[in-house]
TrEMBL record:
Site-annotated residues for Contributes to substrate recognition: 108
Organism for this UniProt entry: Lusitaniella coriacea LEGE 07157
CDD domains: HAD_HisB-N
Active site, renumbered: 9, 11
Similarity comment: Belongs to the gmhB family.
Stabilizes the phosphoryl group, annotated site positions: 51, 109
Protein name per its UniProtKB record: D,D-heptose 1,7-bisphosphate phosphatase
EC number: 3.1.3.-
Any one biological process term the GO annotation gives: carbohydrate metabolic process
């Protein structure tokens, strides 16, 4: 069964992880991702981007820079026939230097705040959603809520793959080489090749 929605991390999952990316010119899409986003739109799957952006709290850039990057990402996606339903980002960090952004929050992953907002605002069922990221903290809120989880090997994914071995939830995570291969549809209806806890074969 296809998911209602896929909740994607941004840096290292959709695009290359640049150090505190804050300008549209820094965007480099991971190969095959734009084409996959188009495919998902054609299949009626909603895509949400869920990202920590602590550079705001640290004073490296403002929220307007984050929004400019997201506007460019949306433009790129639409030019390739896809669509991002909505971007969610957490600008906080407890060690930040900017007042108002260095307070404790419930949105910075692995806290579940952004995930709960997606579910509530878009009337989604967690067991009909998938979560994708290159760090375990990207996946943990979704796993706790009952989402199917996929760890990509792009970005920090290879390091996270090693960390996964020591986690109690490791059997609930499927490791794939890239979001571009999240699922090449299995025409038998399963949607995913491979079993949870194993590398996806494409």
């Amino acid at each position: 069964m296809l998911p209602q929605a896929i909740l994607c991390d941004r840096d290292g999952t959709l695009i290359e992880d640049e150090h505190f990316l804050h300008h549209p010119e820094q965007i480099r899409w991971i190969p095959g991702v734009l084409e996959k986003l188009r495919e998902w739109k054609q299949q009626g799957i909603q895509i949400f981007v869920i990202t920590n952006q602590s550079g705001v709290a640290r004073g490296y850039f403002g929220t307007e820079a984050v929004e400019a990057v997201h506007a460019q990402l949306q433009q790129d996606v639409e030019q390739h026939g896809g669509e991002i339903a909505q971007f969610y980002y957490c600008p906080h960090h407890p060690q930040g230097s900017i007042s108002g952004y260095n307070d404790p929050c419930n949105c910075r992953k692995p806290a579940p705040g952004m995930f709960l907002a997606v579910l509530e605002e878009h009337h989604l069922q967690p067991n009909r959603c998938w979560v994708v990221g290159d760090r375990l903290r990207d996946l943990e809120p979704g796993i706790e809520l009952g989402m199917k989880a996929f760890l990509v090997e792009t970005g920090y994914g290879l390091q996270a793959k090693q960390e996964l071995k020591g986690k109690s939830y490791r059997e609930l995570v499927t490791v794939i080489s890239s979001l571009a291969y999240l699922f090449d549809l299995d025409r038998r209806g399963d949607g995913v090749r491979g079993r949870r806890g194993e590398e996806l074969v494409t």
